[in-house]
């Protein structure tokens, strides 16, 4: 029998599966586990959005939508971004609808990078960006910038150092704010300083702003405000309206850039389900403040979990957005985060995500998702306290 695996795409077998999902599946087999693993709002999608999806189905909106997305959705998304953040994009030519931000990331990476190009990634960060680049070409070089010594924020000096070293090979800068896994976000002044480093250089900035509506202590800031022509902006409805299963994301960029990315989208997805686009249109158009109730609850959960973890000896940067806390394993424990999470779930039935899932800069950390009920947070902290007391060196 021919071993066909070795004839598949070169390097594909070297790319690990999603370790976050792998561990979450393992933890789910423990009956009474308290899970702080998956980043998915535990709220219901607002009723008016569900009714819009139902109406679309009843009215037979069941045929192909335009490849770039329905014009109604693009207009609603454009109006939302303009009203909320002052981000101005032409719905006709500068907004593209995708299968969640997951597809948006892949489309952007494949459209902007050639073999030999460099993608710069501040880490720790959600691993999807780097996995996508590796799948596209082993000749794409990924340069990670460890931000752990700078409160998990990229600094202009470290970004400039990479440009000084690699010059014109740098093609794509990844920016995710508020950040997964740290919950850290940037002020407008900080983003402006980073924008100045790459301004007028042949560098795209992929700005993943999917958590834009979940900023707790400041208004959402965006690199787009000062680097519009180089920014490829990603957003969507998954986190702000608890619509992860609807799979609607958007790419926004100058029309000449969107036109090229749209070619990738056409061949990967053609278009997205029409009823789901109608639901997303309703979210952007008539749910402009829907996220406020979720945000208030997430902020309460953040404070309870943050205070509880710090009392137990974890060092954490207090999250400014999203719904994650990135905690340093206490010094009284072995710092192997992968061993730690399996020992914790086996002994205490508390599931968290290993920091090294988010690149080497996350080693020795664990991520808590507080997109869970307050009761689960309280129970999880009780179990964690017992585990710490019984297992520390």
TrEMBL record:
CDD domains: AAT_like (cd00609). Keywords: Aminotransferase, Pyridoxal phosphate, Transferase. It is an enzyme of class 2 (transferase). Residues 32-384 form the Aminotransferase class I/classII large domain. GO terms for molecular function: transaminase activity. Its EC number is 2.6.1.-. InterPro entries: Aminotransferase_I/II_large, AspAT/PAT-like, NHTrfase_class1_PyrdxlP-BS, PyrdxlP-dep_Trfase, PyrdxlP-dep_Trfase_major, PyrdxlP-dep_Trfase_small. Its cofactor is pyridoxal 5'-phosphate. Pfam families: Aminotran_1_2. Belongs to the class-I pyridoxal-phosphate-dependent aminotransferase family. This is Aminotransferase. The lineage of its organism: Bacteria, Bacillati, Bacillota, Bacilli, Lactobacillales.
């Amino acid at each position: 029998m021919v071993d066909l695996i070795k004839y598949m795409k070169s390097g594909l077998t070297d790319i690990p599966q999603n370790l976050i999902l792998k561990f979450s599946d393992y933890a789910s087999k423990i009956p009474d586990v308290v899970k702080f693993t998956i980043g998915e709002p535990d709220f219901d999608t607002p009723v008016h959005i569900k009714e819009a999806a139902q109406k679309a189905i009843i009215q037979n909106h069941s045929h192909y939508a335009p490849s770039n997305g329905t014009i109604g959705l693009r207009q609603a998304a454009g109006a939302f971004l303009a009203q909320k953040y002052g981000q101005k994009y032409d719905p006709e030519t500068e907004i593209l609808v995708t299968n969640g931000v997951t597809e948006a990331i892949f489309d952007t990476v494949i459209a902007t990078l050639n073999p030999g190009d460099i993608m710069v990634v501040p880490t720790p960060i959600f691993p999807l960006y780097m996995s996508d680049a590796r799948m596209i070409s082993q000749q794409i070089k990924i340069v990670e910038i460890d931000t752990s010594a700078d409160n998990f924020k990229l600094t202009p000096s470290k970004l400039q150092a990479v440009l000084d070293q690699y010059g014109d090979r740098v093609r794509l800068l990844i920016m995710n704010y508020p950040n997964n896994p740290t919950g850290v976000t940037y002020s407008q002044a900080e983003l402006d300083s980073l924008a100045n480093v790459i301004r007028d250089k042949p560098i795209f900035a992929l700005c993943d702003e999917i958590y834009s509506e979940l900023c707790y202590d400041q208004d959402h800031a965006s690199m787009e405000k000062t680097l519009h022509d180089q920014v490829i902006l990603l957003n969507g409805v998954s986190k702000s309206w608890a619509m992860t299963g609807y799979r609607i994301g958007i790419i926004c960029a100058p029309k000449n850039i969107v036109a090229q990315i749209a070619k990738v989208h056409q061949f990967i997805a053609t278009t997205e389900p029409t009823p789901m686009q109608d639901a997303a249109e309703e979210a952007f158009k008539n749910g402009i403040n829907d996220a406020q109730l979720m945000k208030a609850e997430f902020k309460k959960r953040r404070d309870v979990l943050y205070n509880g973890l710090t009392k137990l000896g974890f060092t954490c940067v207090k999250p400014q957005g999203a719904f994650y806390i990135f905690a340093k394993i206490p010094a009284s424990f072995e710092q192997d985060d992968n061993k730690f999470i399996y020992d914790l779930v086996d002994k205490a039935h508390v599931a968290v995500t290993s920091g090294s899932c988010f690149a080497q800069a996350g080693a020795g950390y664990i991520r808590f998702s507080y997109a869970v009920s307050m009761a689960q947070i309280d129970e999880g902290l009780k179990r964690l306290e017992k585990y710490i007391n019984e297992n520390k060196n």
